[in-house]
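for the recovery benchmark. tokens below, seq after
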């Protein structure tokens, strides 16, 4: 016997998109259930994004989960770019009047999970074999297995917030979806360590040995990345090897200040650009990584997930409170307009900062573009506007 329950919006995935959407809908009295295939501990163990835009900060505040972020997050008014050992700074404040916040995705996820628990909204973790049905009808439903029982969730709408490898996008007939993709022949090897960061600001590094990034989570916790080949095996990267590869890519001051220590997390992320169009299929709406992926170079992945959620939550609120479907009808176009601009910036910054080919012409073009960036106020403004996040 299948256990049958009902909700207004069934949300697939308890990553940042699903949790944020759930919290915003709950605030407006819209019933929702989140189905997540992993356990809560597993979701919290994934180390991912670190930089959030003002629009994401505003949305977390609106969801009522911003207190810890304001207390512990680090406001960054600029970023540093190191080219072949020489560091340059781009001031967001001077160019745009705005700033970004360094606050880890793990912490955001925890704040959203705590917020959801506090209001008693249901999340079903370890929900297996999630399957979406009748998405083109007015009565979509989701079946799954949890606690060893077969279950069915009836709903008005389904929000597919289940990331790139999720089931939601795969449910759609291939003829109804257009995928645009670019896979880069490289990955980022990331290390988290309880050591003080080398600088008060992030340093993006372009070097003949390959890209590197010096980031942070707090004044005592650093996050570093180096460009690596996709063939790399994490087992062949003991901590010492990582630090040895990172050091020569940095400028002298950063090298002198670098404090190495044991890693508390280490992982490899492949770089990919991907957009699926449209983002709505009948009563199924895709949001976040389920619909699009950016390479992490511009720190846009999590922020795009948040902007999708902003459009989608407003559309659901309009549907239930004002009986208007205008927001739902325009969701895909509105979200994609912002997605493509972030895709462009992330692609551009990836191509600018990595060693992608051995062609000397490509290297010279990168150096010319970087030199132009540091000398032109117009170019720096373009960079800063995109990095802090384009307006909605
Ligand atoms: P996700 O965080 O992927 O969440 C989707 C959730 O759905 C997951 O919890 C998953 O378990 C669940 N799910 C999947 N399938 C199912 C199913 N069948 N049934 C039920 N639940 C399911 N962005 C940056 O800005 N900077 C970074 O440094 C950065 N690093 C990254 C590193 C990695 C390895 C990855 C994968 C992404 C990284 N990103 C980064 C991107 C950023 O983390 C994502 O954009 C962000 O997590 C998107 O949130 P989301 O909720 O849409 O998707
Ligand atoms: C991070 O701190 O993990 C981070 C920061 C900036 C990026 C990507 C990742 O562009």
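predicted aa per position
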């Amino acid at each position: 016997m299948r256990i049958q329950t009902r909700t207004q919006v069934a949300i697939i995935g308890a990553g940042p998109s699903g949790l944020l959407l759930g919290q915003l809908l709950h605030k407006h009295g819209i019933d929702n259930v989140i189905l997540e295939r992993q356990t809560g501990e597993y979701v919290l163990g994934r180390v991912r994004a670190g930089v959030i835009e003002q629009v994401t900060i505003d949305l977390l505040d609106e969801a009522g989960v911003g207190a810890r972020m304001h207390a512990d997050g680090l406001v960054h008014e600029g970023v540093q770019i190191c080219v072949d050992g020489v560091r340059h700074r781009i001031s967001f404040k001077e160019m745009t009047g705005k700033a970004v916040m360094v606050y880890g995705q793990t912490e955001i996820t925890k704040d959203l999970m705590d917020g959801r628990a506090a209001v008693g909204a249901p999340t079903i973790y370890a929900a297996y074999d999630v399957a979406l049905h009748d998405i083109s009808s007015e009565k979509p439903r989701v079946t799954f297995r949890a606690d060893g029982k077969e279950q069915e969730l009836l709903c008005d709408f389904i929000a597919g917030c289940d990331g790139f490898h999720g089931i939601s996008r795969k449910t759609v007939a291939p003829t109804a979806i257009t995928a645009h993709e670019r896979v880069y022949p490289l990955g980022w090897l990331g290390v988290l360590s309880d050591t003080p960061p080398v600088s008060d600001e992030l340093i993006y590094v372009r070097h003949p040995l390959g890209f590197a990034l010096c980031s942070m989570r707090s004044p005592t916790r650093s996050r570093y990345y180096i460009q690596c080949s996709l063939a790399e095996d994490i087992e062949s990267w003991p901590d010492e090897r990582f630090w040895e590869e990172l050091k020569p890519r940095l400028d002298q001051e950063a090298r002198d200040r670098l404090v190495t220590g044991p890693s508390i997390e280490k992982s490899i992320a492949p770089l990919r650009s991907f957009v699926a169009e449209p983002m709505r299929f009948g009563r199924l709406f895709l949001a976040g990584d389920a619909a699009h992926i950016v390479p992490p170079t511009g720190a846009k992945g999590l922020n795009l997930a948040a902007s999708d959620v902003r459009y989608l939550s407003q559309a659901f609120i309009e549907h239930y409170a004002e009986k208007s479907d205008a927001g739902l009808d325009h969701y895909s176009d509105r979200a994609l307009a912002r997605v493509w601009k972030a895709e462009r910036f992330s692609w551009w910054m990836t191509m600018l900062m990595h060693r992608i080919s051995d062609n000397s012409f490509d290297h010279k073009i990168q150096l010319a573009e970087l030199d132009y960036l540091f000398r032109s106020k117009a170019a720096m403004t373009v960079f800063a506007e995109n990095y802090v996040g384009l307006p909605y």
